[in-house]
Amino acid sequence: MKIMVCGKGGCGKSTFSVLLARAFQKRGNPVLLVDADESNFGIPHLMGIEPPQDLMASFGGKKGFKEKLNQKFPADGEGIFIRKQTIDELPGACVAASDGIRMVSIGKIHHFGEGCACPMGILAKKFLASLKTEKDGIVIVDSEAGVEHFGRGVIAEIDVILDIVDPTAESFLLAGKMGEMAEAAQKPAFFILNKVEPAIEAIMVRHLDQKRVIGTIPRDDVMFMASLEGRPIETSTGAVDAIAEVLAEQLL
Ligand SMILES: Nc1ncnc2c1ncn2[C@@H]1O[C@H](COP(=O)(O)OP(=O)(O)O)[C@@H](O)[C@H]1O
Ligand SMILES: [Mg+2]
Predict the structure, then answer these.
(1) Does domain 2-52+96-112+135-251 have CATH number 3.40.50.300?
(2) What mean pLDDT comes out for the span 189-202?
(3) Could you state, in order of their start, the residue ranges of all structural domains in the chain?
(4) Cβ(77)–Cβ(93) below 8 Å
(5) ∠ CA 229-240-124, rounded to 5°
(6) CA of 221 to the centre of ligand 1 (A)
(7) How far apart are CA 137 and CA 30, in angstroms?
(8) Cα(first)–Cα(last) distance of the chain, in Å?
(9) C-alpha distances out from residue 56 to 64, 112, 174, 238, 243, Å
């Protein structure tokens, strides 16, 4: 199952992605976390690991990637994910691991003036399309803010979309848009309410397509402080474990 985690900037996508990865790992599912956000560098921090080499860099950066992409007859091993492969077949430097959770990063914006991020979208799509998942394997894709990956068509390679909704009008509007686009792409999409205080949960639900809401995560100061101090995620809530159970029941 390939899950894409979406939502507006700062709503809690990366935090949720790491917690969901842990929750599935605890259930015994093999988990791969894919960092597909070219503009943020926080996932390794949240996991308490050194960042792996990103896939784009392993192809020689955007320039090398474009050259390889345009090769008509790539030599064996040089094609860009032209055949199905497992995570074990990736270059070792591109895969980091922590507590049984593996992680890869598509690519990051590293340099001033390096050009647009479209090649990252192409690579994300090809990687996800070619990835052979293990039995009961879960791939969690942490995406960049907004709806760029819907426009790029990355969600074509995804089985389910999770939109993280924080208590802002902006998030409600984005949730509406994502619901529409998911329908057009014929993909299931669910909402997770995040940073929720008891008094506002009902207000949030009122602004959303209720049948898509599958979980609520309370505002959690333990998590917030760990993030503020740059420590790996800690949490005082089991809400994400419950969400993993719901997803496993509905989708596995
Ligand atoms: N449930 C929560 N309670 C308190 N703070 C949270 C919660 N979820 C996320 N945060 C905080 O919100 C901020 C943004 O989270 P992050 O996961 O980086 O968002 P995104 O990846 O969507 O940009 C971080 O400071 C994080 O600790
Ligand atoms: Mg993030």
Answers:
(1) yes
(2) 96
(3) 2-52+96-112+135-251
(4) no
(5) 80
(6) 10
(7) 5
(8) 7
(9) 9, 16, 29, 35, 32
Query: How many other C-beta atoms can be found within 10 angstroms of the C-beta atom of residue 249?
Result: 8
How far apart, in whole angstroms, are the C-alpha atoms of residue 32 and residue 104? 8
CA of 242 to the centre of ligand 2 (A): 22
Find the 148 Cα to ligand 2 centroid distance in Å.
Answer: 14
pLDDT band at 47 (very low <50, low <70, confident <90, very high): very high
220 CB within 6 A, ligand 1: yes
Q: Is the distance from the beta carbon of residue 13 to the nearest atom of ligand 1 less than 6 Å? A: yes
Q: How far apart are CA 156 and CA 174, in angstroms?
A: 19
Residue 208: CB within 6 Å of ligand 1?
no
Query: What is the predicted pLDDT for the residue at 51?
Result: 94
51 Cβ below 6 A of ligand 1: no
pLDDT digits (tens, 9 = 90+) for 67-109: 888 776 666 555 667 678 888 888 899 999 998 999 999 998 8
Whole-angstrom Cα distance, residue 56 to residue 70?
15
Sequence letter at residue 119 = P
Residue 85 DSSP class: B
Question: What global pTM score does this model have?
Answer: 0.94
